[in-house]
Specification:
The chain contains one helix and 21 strands. The protein is mainly β and 310 residues long. The longest helix has 15 residues. The structure holds beta-L-arabinofuranose (FUB). The site of beta-L-arabinofuranose has 12 residues, from strand 1, strand 9 and strand 13. GO terms for molecular function: hydrolase activity, hydrolyzing O-glycosyl compounds. Keywords: Carbohydrate metabolism, Glycosidase, Hydrolase, Polysaccharide degradation, Xylan degradation. Belongs to the glycosyl hydrolase 43 family. This is Glycosyl hydrolase family 43.
Length: 310
């Protein structure tokens, strides 16, 4: 027991001394990082992929997965899915936006928003691909039936094994229970009440029995590339995964990018905030994923994340 305790302490000490490098992926443009720690002890990032030359988000057509065991060295597991592999997807491809991944009963479920028709904005579906591995072998199984054309899926599996599905857009965030097959909604989707200025990018984490729903807001303080926006990251708390929510304010100010989209996860004893910025390209639609440490106040509220570079 002593040896095990010492080994765990050493791993945590190593991680808390890790030199975070931002952006931490530089060989390609990446956005919308969804972070998960799986049973093999590694931290995995499911990200979307911005494509040069920048043309907004329409060219985003594939996903890569990255992982680490020390927050310093990142492995690129390569492409796990692209739009040509989506049988029900729009024939023009593209628009593979912010994804998420969940694990249940030996299977990894990869959730991705993708339009099913040429009128992309009105035809979003949330696709599901599955694999026995966290970073390879994903096959598209279909999509979640009965949803609105909204984006940015997030799947949270609670301590009792019940999975919840969240997504949003157009100022609305909705959520509901998932059946055990992780591909069907169990009952009704309900609007998440109490979120101030919700835009998109919902993410759930749980700490000390409290659920935290984080998201990007509609903050709009600049005009870059002819479009407006510079989203802040906000969060709300609840004693239930489906709310109602109490808005707690902003945990991250705008980056240099038009959008922001983040996830919050604990790894080896330290909480982290993942997000994206445009520091590598200086262009809104060529984004790069970043990570910084996240800290809580004694009352459970989140301290503002301080973005670092270099
Ligand atoms: O990356 C494409 C879209 O931009 C995402 O789905 C949104 O959350 C925003 O980051």
């Amino acid at each position: 027991i002593f040896i095990l305790f010492t080994t765990v302490c050493n791993a945590q000490k190593k991680i808390s001394n890790a030199k975070l490098r931002n952006p931490f992926i530089t060989q390609m443009y990446t956005a919308d990082p969804s972070a998960h720690v799986w049973a093999d002890g590694r931290l995995y990032i499911y990200a979307s992929h911005d494509i040069a030359p920048p043309q907004g988000c329409d060219l985003m057509d594939r996903y890569h997965v990255f992982s680490t065991d020390d927050m310093e060295n990142w492995k690129d597991h390569g492409e796990i899915l692209n739009s040509s592999q989506v049988p029900w997807g729009r024939k023009e491809g593209g628009f593979m936006w912010a994804p998420d991944c969940a694990y249940k009963n030996g299977t990894y479920y990869f959730y991705f928003p993708h339009p099913s028709g040429t009128e992309w904005n009105a035809t979003w579906k949330i696709g599901v691909a599955t694999s026995k591995n966290p970073a390879s072998g994903f096959e598209v199984k279909g999509y979640i039936d009965g949803l609105k054309p909204m984006i940015d899926p997030c799947v949270f599996v609670d301590d009792d094994g019940q999975a919840y599905f969240y997504y949003g857009g157009g100022g609305t965030c909705e959520a509901g229970k998932l059946k055990d097959n992780m591909m069907e909604i169990d009952g009704e989707m309900i609007k998440m009440e109490g979120l101030t200025d919700f835009h998109e990018a919902s993410w759930i984490h749980k700490k000390d029995g409290i659920y935290y729903l984080s998201y990007s807001d509609n903050h709009d303080d600049n005009m870059k590339d002819g479009v407006s926006g510079d989203n802040r990251m906000r969060y709300a708390t609840s004693k239930s995964p489906l709310g109602p929510w109490k808005s707690e304010g902003i945990y991250m100010d705008p980056t240099d990018s038009y959008t922001n989209h983040g996830s919050i996860v604990k790894y080896k004893g330290q909480w982290y905030s993942f997000y994206h910025n445009s520091s590598l390209s200086n262009h809104d639609w060529l984004r790069s994923i970043c990570v910084d440490k996240l800290y809580y106040n004694a009352d459970g509220t989140i301290k503002k994340v301080v973005p670092t570079t270099g």
